[in-house]
Structures are given as structure tokens and as C-alpha cells.
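Worked example 2:
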Amino acid sequence: MSPTIIHYLQMLTPSDLRPRVSQDTHFQVWELKQPQWQMNQCLYQWVGSSWHWRDKLPWQEDQWKAYALDPTLRTFVSYHQGHVAGYYELKHHDSQGVEIAIFGLIPSYQGRGFGGALLTHALEQAWSWNANRVWVHTCDLDHPHALRNYEARGMECYRQERPSPKKQ
């Protein structure tokens, strides 16, 4: 399945952030200080299975290791009452700022108000990494509230793209 429209969003200053904080004290976010490629792989499959994330599915162990060990990548995992609720990955691009490369919640934690809080955390962490801008892309195959969440946190769409259908 291919997206019909891709939205590219960015935030140019930290003051544009419109934060949302979870009132649930059991919701926490922690950075994986020691890269664990198996965790990146597992979370990618777990979160992405509902949203047609396919680009990394064929990766072999060596590809996952190289990806997770990249010093320009940081991985954060959210927890609720000790259970994994979601995660995000930040990718630092020298001249292009910090990309929210991956963002999502485990299906059973969607619709519980954690998305805004997790995105707020992602944006705050991106800005703390000496970003000149923070950017992300989403498409119509992602969660129906994804675009709305990005915009609600203060990100603005700077480009839309309609990919050409892939020939089979």
C-alpha cells in the first residue's frame, strides 16, 4: 500500500512549541542511553505494523546494528505503569536540523491522550540537541490524528507531495 499524500512539517524555533503534558503520572519517557538494535527493531515492527511501515522490515541484523549505533540517532521509549507505550527516534542532520525519524504509540495506548505528551517530549529533546529546526513527515497511511497532533504542537506544513503510484 502506498501513500497518496505525504506532509512535510517543521518547527523553526523552540518558542513555537505548544506543549501538552500528560496528567497521568504513570506516563514516562526514557532515552535508551545504550543503543539496543533489537529494541529499535522490535518497536519499529510493533508500532509500525498498524501503519504500513515497511521500509525497514527486510533489514538484516547488521543493518539494524549500524542504524542503532549511529551517533546521530537517539531513541526514546515511553512507558505507562512499566509497560512500553510507544517510542520515537531523533536523527541529527548537520545542516538540516533534527528529524523526528520515527514516532508512534503501541496500538493499545492510542487514543488515551499520550500522543501529544510524547510529541512534546520529542520536540523538547530535539531542540535540546542544538537544532536549527525540527522536521518530520507523515502520510495518510499514518494514524488519522498524526497530522493534527504535529500541527497542534506548533509544527507547520512546508510541503506536500503526491507520490507516483508504484508499478507492480
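The chain has a mean pLDDT of 92. Strands lie at 6-11, 27-31, 73-80, 83-93, 97-105, 134-139, 156-161.
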